[in-house]
Amino acid sequence: MPPGSWFAVGRGAAGLWRDSTLGATALGVTHFWFLLALVHGVFAASTRLAIPLVIGLMAGSLLARRLSGARIELGLTPLGAFGMGLFSLAFAGTTDAWTAAAAVGLFGV
Q1: Nearest to 31 by CA among 78, 86, 96
Q2: Cα(6)–Cα(31) distance, rounded to whole angstroms?
Q3: Cα–Cα distance, 65 to 83 (Å, whole number)
Q4: pLDDT tens for residues 69-104?
Q5: Which has more pLDDT, 3 or 35?
Q6: Which of 3, 26, 55, 84 is least crowded, fewest Cβ atoms below 10 Å from its Cβ?
Q7: 3-state per-residue secondary structure call for the chain
């Protein structure tokens, strides 16, 4: 990246944080992709857990489209972040494979 690009990134980030709703949404989306990359890395070796995750992501995408009415709806981001946190805790407390698969699938939604 050319040296001047870092200044452009800094100006863009500063502008993003001036709007609290947009800044919180960007933080939520970043959190989502970070957790998804982390979970994907952990489950890459386990197809039994990767499949419910992918199905949950597809279902969540379709649900988000239906709830947002095909427009950008920033209010769904905190709801999704809450669900990811809740079902990651549920996954941490599971002892059997079916409950783990359900928690991972709902994490993806």
Answers
A1: 78
A2: 22
A3: 17
A4: 878 777 787 788 888 889 989 988 888 989 989 998
A5: 35
A6: 3
A7: CCHHHHHHHHHHHHHHHHCHHHHHHHHHHHHHHHHHHHHHHHHCCCHHHHHHHHHHHHHHHHHHHHHHCCCCCCCHHHHHHHHHHHHHHHHHCCCCHHHHHHHHHHHHC
CA distance 100 to 98: 5
Global pTM reads 0.66
CB of 36 within 8 A of CB of 60?
no
- 4-19 tens-digit pLDDT: 788 888 888 888 878 8
Sign of CA dihedral 36, 38, 39, 42: positive
Residue type, 46: S
- Both structure tokens of 43: 């489950």
